[in-house]
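Repro:
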Amino acid sequence: MLSPLLMWNKIGRISVSLSKRLDISPIRALDIFYTSHVCQRMHCPKEELYTFSDEYIVDELILELQGE
């Protein structure tokens, strides 16, 4: 598992990338991330989603949003 500091950096990068893709504020993107199933998966040691690229995780977030 990533250290808390590295995880926070990764979450920040994901939020900025999501905000650009959806043309929303980074704060709104951060809120979307933290309330998503993807966030839960990213913090699950069994899934190891945190090891995937930021763009892959953003794609997963967008797919989750499209499924709602």
